[in-house]
Amino acid sequence: xxxxxxxxxxxxxxxxxxxxxxxxxxxxxxxxxxxxxxxxxxxxxxxxxxxxxxxxxxxxxxxxxxxxxxxxxxxxxxxxxxxxxxxxxxxxxxxxxxxxxxxxxxxxxxxxxxxxxxxxxxxxxxxxxxxxxxxxxxxxxxxxxxxxxxxxxxxxxxxxxxxxxxxxxxxxxxxxxxxxxxxxxxxxxxxxxxxxxxxxxxxxxxxxxxxxxxxxx
Length: 217
Ligand code: GAR
Fold this sequence. Notes:
alpha/beta, two-stranded antiparallel sheet, 6 helices, 9 strands, 33% helix, binds glycinamide ribonucleotide
């Protein structure tokens, strides 16, 4: 079985990258990480990747005149590493339409909300302020608009009466770590594909419960 070769851009601690790396450590998993790429030289996730034996690179956005030049450098590093797919994992830079088009339908992101609610930053604070009863996370293919694109998988958590942004974030993050590897598996196996602006199952139906989070272990 040829495994999907995945590049993983990060900006920080890299816990989602670690969840993907743990999944990919199983030789039966249909994807492998060929490069972890950080725009932040001090990102803690770089060390975590190296502990898995994964090659790492830093492409510091501050060294480029504009977003297009930075994004082109990222693509060059990903291509040089042999990546044919990209999983953003806490990568906190806006991407140019050129980068998104280069990796169209080969670019996943994990976002800490039930999209299309709460795009952007501070999702947990905003969920608490809005008084929603359910919050969660989304794995989606990336489109040029911020936190937009065909949804592969979501997981919901209840918002509890005494939640703080921190406690809610921790509960959501645990779900991110479950659904990101599960979504990558579906995509890498070819079990799902993008059709228009939705993700559909190859075996005849689209959306719905079977693409919700997998059962709790
Ligand atoms: C995660 O919660 C991820 O969903 C979020 O940043 C955090 C990164 O944590 N990403 C975004 O907000 C992107 N829009 P990590 O570095 O430990 O994976």
